[in-house]
């Protein structure tokens, strides 16, 4: 064979390999969506999760008793069949019966039964597991020692029937919301694991799916790969072959990857900054921006008690700075929330609030409450009432102590970083020293959960009315301020029971009035979170309840 012939043969071979490579790459992209996120998941076990993004992914993997769906027209959450095909409530509100489908299986082929649910509810209730959802099973019947009597409280007469018995009457939506969130784990794999070891050995726990996707691999701090679960009946196998979550901590790098096509979706951790979202919407026809509204709020959590005394002895000793509600009110008056919105979020993309209740629930909002508009003079007046006066150095002081504290925030959130600088300057203007620190998300959550942060620039995804009640329950892990108020606790208790529409509205108004008066957090705003999607991804429906709400229905338009 001549040199010329060899040369042309080599060219043909390289051309063939190139075509094959392009064909394989195109096939991969035709069936795969890559999502860029700022932080890795804390866990992929519903018993242990705290991060919102972890909860969303667990919703794609684990069985849900029912499916929640937000109706934007009525402003209400409704519940649809999932593992349970139907359900019924007793007239006295003390019993709920769920009838389960018989064809649902874990990915290893073992049927999902009512025994899995009962077993999992025991784990949620176990203090050693320390689930953030432990409170959700707290209404079940208890024995004479005050412990949940699971043999009476959770009955499983057969594999497809689950009966829940409660100590007090509960509104149907409270039951549905709580047990929707209590995703079960497979009993046949977890019953041999000591509950005390679940957190310590969390990285070794099996992740066995029953949902539309299953886990192919998870490289911590790098990438999670989900693949279609072909055996799923909850509700069906995903349309996509793969859903990849890639951890890209830096916002600018993440945005560049989205614009270049390296990732298809940019979501969570604040999503896309409003200024960037608007620029993409105007200039990039290949990318679409979806706004998730009225789901997420930012606030400053004031620790109302001495964290050390509470952590060690559960002693409710008032915090040296934030134990006085006049101080908390003053701090809210001192913060120019309009400046934060105008400077970073943009007018029209946020709603300033003074309680935790989402603006989505228009019919429930209390119209009688003042707006805590920016008023440094009012702030100083309230602080003076509380005994704080300016010293020779220009800072407020009381009994020889300067008003000084550290405001902590998680890393990687530009919106909160911007808010922090405004808050720091606002407080300096009235004589308060506010030092800023940022912490890795995992460390931030750990320290906040241990009541080690005096003030935290933090937020919540607080989309449903039942979760509003969970946030402020006295024993709730979400009550990071350790806020205690006897009447408020009674209002929460009453809102969990069946009520007439008139009585329910009056209770929601009181719920807001107490928060407004006490200011356990300085509520900043509910903000629109902008999620970016490549236009080739079809059937996307972001919801106030979740961005990945219908990820099992996403499809990719072939290039």
Helices and strands in order:
Blueprint: H1 3-30, E1 32-37, H2 52-61, E2 66-71, E3 76-81, E4 84-89, E5 95-100, H3 114-125, H4 150-153, E6 154-158, E7 161-165, H5 172-181, H6 187-190, E8 213-219, E9 223-228, E10 242-247, H7 251-260, E11 265-266, H8 274-283, E12 287-302, H9 307-313, H10 325-334, H11 337-345, E13 350-352, H12 376-385, E14 389-390, E15 396-398, E16 401-402, E17 404-410, H13 414-429, E18 433-439, H14 441-449, E19 455-461, H15 465-471, H16 486-495, H17 501-518, E20 521-534, E21 537-538, E22 555-556
Helix pairs in contact: 10-12, 11-13, 16-17
Question: Which residue ranges are poorly predicted, with pLDDT under 50 across at least 5 consecutive positions?
Answer: 17-27
Rg over CA atoms, rounded to whole Å, is 26 Å
How many helices? The count is: 17
Structural class: alpha+beta
Number of strands: 22
* CATH architecture heading of the largest domain: Roll
**Distance separating the two termini:** 40 Å
The shape, in one word, is globular
Mean pLDDT metric: 93
Looking at the structure, the CATH topology of the largest domain is: Dipeptide-binding Protein, domain 3
Percent of residues in β-strands: 15-25%
CATH H-level superfamily title of the largest domain = Dipeptide-binding Protein, Domain 3
Let me know the largest β-sheet: 11 strands, mixed
Can you tell me the CATH class of the largest domain? Alpha Beta
Helix fraction bin: 25-40%
- Integer count of domains: 3
């Amino acid at each position: 064979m001549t040199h010329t012939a060899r040369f042309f043969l080599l060219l043909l071979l390289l051309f063939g390999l190139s075509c094959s490579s392009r064909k394989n790459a195109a096939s991969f992209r035709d069936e795969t969506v890559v999502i860029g996120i700022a932080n890795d998941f804390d866990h992929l076990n519903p018993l242990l999760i705290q991060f919102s993004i972890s909860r969303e992914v667990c919703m794609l993997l684990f069985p849900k008793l029912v499916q929640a769906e937000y109706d934007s027209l009525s402003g209400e959450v409704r519940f649809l069949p999932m593992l349970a095909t139907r359900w019924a409530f007793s007239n006295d509100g003390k019993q709920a019966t769920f009838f389960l489908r018989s064809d649902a299986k874990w990915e290893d082929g073992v049927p999902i039964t009512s025994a899995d649910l009962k077993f999992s509810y025991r784990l949620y209730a176990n203090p050693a597991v320390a689930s953030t959802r432990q409170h959700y099973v707290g209404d079940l019947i208890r024995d004479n020692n005050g412990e949940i009597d699971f043999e009476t409280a959770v009955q499983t007469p057969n594999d497809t029937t689950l009966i829940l018995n409660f100590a007090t009457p509960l509104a149907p939506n409270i039951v549905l919301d709580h047990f929707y969130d209590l995703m079960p784990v497979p009993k046949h794999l977890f019953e041999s694991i000591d509950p005390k070891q679940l957190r310590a050995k969390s990285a070794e726990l099996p992740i066995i799916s029953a949902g539309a996707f299953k886990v192919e691999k998870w490289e911590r701090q790098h990438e999670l790969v989900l693949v279609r679960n072909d055996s799923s009946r909850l509700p069906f196998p995903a349309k996509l072959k793969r859903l990849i979550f890639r951890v890209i901590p830096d916002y600018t790098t993440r945005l560049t990857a989205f614009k270049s096509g390296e990732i298809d979706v940019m979501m969570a951790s604040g999503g896309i900054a409003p200024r960037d979202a608007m620029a993409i919407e105007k200039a990039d026809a290949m990318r679409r921006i979806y706004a998730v509204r009225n789901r997420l709020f930012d606030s400053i959590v004031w620790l109302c008690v001495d964290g050390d005394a509470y952590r060690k002895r559960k002693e409710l000793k008032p915090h040296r700075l934030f134990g006085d509600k006049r101080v908390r009110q003053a701090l809210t008056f001192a913060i120019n929330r309009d400046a934060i919105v105008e400077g970073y979020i943009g007018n029209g993309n946020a709603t300033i609030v003074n309680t935790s209740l989402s603006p989505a629930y228009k019919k429930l909002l209390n119209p009688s409450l003042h707006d805590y508009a920016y008023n440094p003079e009012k702030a100083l007046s309230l602080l003076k009432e509380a005994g704080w006066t300016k010293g020779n150095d220009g800072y407020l002081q009381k009994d020889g102590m300067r008003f000084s504290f550290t405001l902590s925030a998680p890393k990687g959130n530009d919106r909160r970083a911007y808010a922090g600088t405004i808050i720091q300057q606002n407080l300096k203007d009235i004589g308060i020293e506010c030092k800023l620190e940022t912490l890795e998300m995992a460390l931030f959550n750990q320290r906040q959960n241990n009541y080690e942060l005096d003030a935290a620039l933090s937020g919540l995804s607080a989309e449903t009315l039942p979760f509003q009640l969970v946030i402020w329950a006295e024993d709730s892990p979400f009550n990071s301020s350790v806020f205690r108020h006897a009447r408020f606790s009674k209002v929460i208790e009453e809102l969990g029971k069946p009520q007439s529409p008139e009585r329910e509205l009056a209770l929601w108004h009181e719920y807001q009035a107490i928060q407004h008066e006490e200011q356990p957090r300085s509520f900043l705003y509910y903000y629109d979170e902008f999620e970016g999607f490549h236009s080739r991804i079809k059937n996307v429906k972001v919801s106030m309840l979740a961005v990945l709400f219908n990820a099992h229905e996403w499809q990719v338009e072939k290039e």
